[in-house]
Amino acid sequence: MKGWIFKIFIFPLLYFISIWPFWLLHAFSSFFYVIVFYFVGYRKTVVIQNLKNSFPEKTDAEIKKITKQFYKHFCDVIFETLKLYTISQESLKKRIVFTDDAIKTMNSFFDKGQSIVGVIGHVGNWEWGAISHQVYFKQLITGVYHPLSNKSFDAFMLKLRGRFGGNIVSMTALYKELLTLRQKNIPTTIGLIADQTAPPESAYWLTFLNQDTPVFVGTEKLAKKFNYPVVYLPIKKIKRGHYQMDAIVITENPKDMPDGKITELHTRELEKNIQEQPFSWLWSHRRWKHKKPANI
Predict the structure, then answer these.
(1) pLDDT tens digits, residue range 20-30?
(2) What three-state secondary structure class fits 292?
(3) What angle do CA 286, 290, 157 make, to 5 degrees?
């Protein structure tokens, strides 16, 4: 889509939607759910198959219930993400809350100027989860992203993610940015979403949700290279439009960990996060499109 179309038509529309009160946003989300689930059927086959493979013990009725819950939640996340365009820090802080233990854990690193690697998955509202760091903590967050093919929409998402002062960089520019920050003695939280599908040849393979699964090792490599502690931050949906985050320390000394252990540990925390609220993960993602190579 051409950039001028975005500027003249799309951006104003997205801004208009973002100023709606939450009750109206969620009302439109419910309407959107009916369209997406019952008429469009967006990736419904993928979602159902992923759920069946991940939870073989569940009945068809249970899978159907989770599927509907997922689509309702997925539509909520879309509209709630648009709300980031105009939401205030105070309003966001009321809707995504860090537990007292999580704040204590994070500040135990930040108070001594320690950089860390913070890991989340596509669980709950991951966009809110990522941006909430800037709302709760003074330490700089360096959020890592993969540029979108549509440059106009990519610019829009960067604007949302950096509204409250985050340092958003692409994966290709990350190492250079981290070296620069370390040279300037600026501590940072490296923000990663670590549940995308990894290329099978370079991935770390493990059993995840009852399936052979390739996992990116980037989190572990970063942590070991800089010897930064790794913290997994689970996101739980409390009720519609409200989420809670915790903080689980994976390791404080990455270089002392055997190869693969950090990857396995943060993936296991993600698995627990999903199992607690199965509907809240991004099941429409083709997570298991690769088969494990025979030589691995």
Answers:
(1) 999 999 999 99
(2) coil
(3) 40
Taking only the tens place, the pLDDT of each residue in 47-64 is 999 999 999 999 999 999
d(CA 124, CA 290): 25
Token pair 């990736």 is found at: 43
Measure the CA–CA gap between 115 and 231, rounded to whole angstroms: 11
**Residue written as token pair 């009916």:** 34
From residue 165, alpha-carbon distances to 134, 159, 160, 215 in Å are 7, 10, 10, 30
> Which pLDDT score is estimated for 2?
66
User: What is the pTM (predicted TM-score) of this model?
Assistant: 0.95
Written in H, E and C, the secondary structure of 182-227 is HHCCCCEEEEEECCCCCCCCCCEEEEECCEEEEECCHHHHHHHHHC
Token digits of residue 131: 């941006």
